[in-house]
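Tokens as discussed.
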């Protein structure tokens, strides 16, 4: 009998009072997170760490150090996690071409897989037990709706990681909201290697704004927002009106929101993805319980009206809201 089957039997016996629940402490859950250098995933890890403490579960966080060679490095971590034969696996399906088959492999071998953040459309067909995260199209569409109210007619969505369909879907949602209102919008994709290069991001945005003087809206996906803001400022100083919105939070983004330099940031609450990712997976491992549908953690709109409250929370719990 496998350890997993033993745990299942132990769970039944525990509910009958025939065995100590201490037996259940043998479970091991591996959470494959995103780059430790990113504030978003740092917030997620805080949620994971708190869940470990609250639930008393044996769980391991493993993640790549940065975005360099992110696809092969992330794939190797998933492969290693599967090879260790854990009680369950929590992963982001950021790069489906590389990880779809691995998720199927894990599920087929009897390892429950919970998917977080990326992979919402396909989690069922891959054999996963659930999905926790944003509705990516709704995320972008909400940003587009806010931009339209601000008067945006011609916009760009800046995608810094080409291989991630979740980011493409956000852009599609943003573009849809703009075009539904009679405007125009397009997605501009940077090379992944330039994702962490501020100078290249600023140069790319500046070139786009210079090439098309009618662009009046920019939507970024995470940390490039501040680089985009730096590129936009000279044009604003010349009297050009350019709306800027983004997803996810950081201290510079919150400062820009408070100052009115950005319209909004769409928070998918990574802390909840880390906490609920472990909590819900543990409920399945121990009791066979799992939500019947996707668990949404975003979008939550942060703007000038509520940025200070997020700041205050960040001061009390540094990094919890994805800001440092």
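Sequence:
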């Amino acid at each position: 009998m496998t350890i997993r089957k033993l745990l299942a039997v132990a769970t039944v016996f525990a509910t009958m009072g025939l065995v100590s629940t201490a037996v259940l402490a043998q479970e091991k859950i591996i959470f494959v997170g995103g780059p430790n250098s990113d504030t978003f995933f740092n917030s997620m890890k805080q949620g994971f760490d708190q869940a470990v403490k609250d639930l008393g579960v044996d769980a391991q966080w493993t993640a790549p150090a940065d975005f360099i060679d992110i696809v092969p490095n992330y794939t190797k971590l998933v492969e290693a996690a599967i090879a260790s034969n854990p009680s369950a696996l929590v992963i982001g399906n950021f790069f489906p071409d590389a990880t779809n088959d691995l998720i199927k492999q894990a599920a087929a071998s009897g390892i429950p897989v919970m998917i977080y953040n990326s992979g919402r459309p396909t989690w069922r067909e891959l054999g996963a037990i659930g999905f926790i995260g944003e509705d990516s199209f709704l995320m972008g569409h909400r940003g587009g709706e806010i931009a339209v109210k601000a008067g945006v007619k011609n916009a760009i969505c800046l995608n810094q990681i080409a291989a991630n369909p979740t980011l493409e879907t956000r852009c599609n949602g943003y573009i849809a909201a703009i075009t539904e209102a009679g405007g125009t919008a397009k997605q501009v994709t940077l090379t992944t290697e330039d994702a962490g290069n501020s100078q290249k991001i600023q140069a790319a945005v500046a070139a786009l704004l210079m090439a098309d003087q009618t662009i009046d809206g920019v939507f970024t996906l995470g940390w490039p927002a501040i680089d985009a803001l730096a590129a936009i400022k000279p044009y604003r100083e010349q009297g050009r009106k350019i709306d800027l919105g983004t997803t996810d939070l950081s201290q510079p983004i919150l400062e820009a929101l408070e100052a009115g330099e950005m319209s909004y940031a769409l928070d998918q609450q990574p802390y909840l993805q880390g906490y609920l990712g472990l909590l819900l997976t543990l409920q399945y491992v121990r009791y066979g319980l799992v939500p019947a549908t996707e668990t949404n953690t975003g979008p939550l709109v942060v703007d000038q009206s509520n940025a200070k409250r997020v700041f205050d929370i960040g001061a009390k719990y540094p990094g919890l809201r994805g800001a440092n």
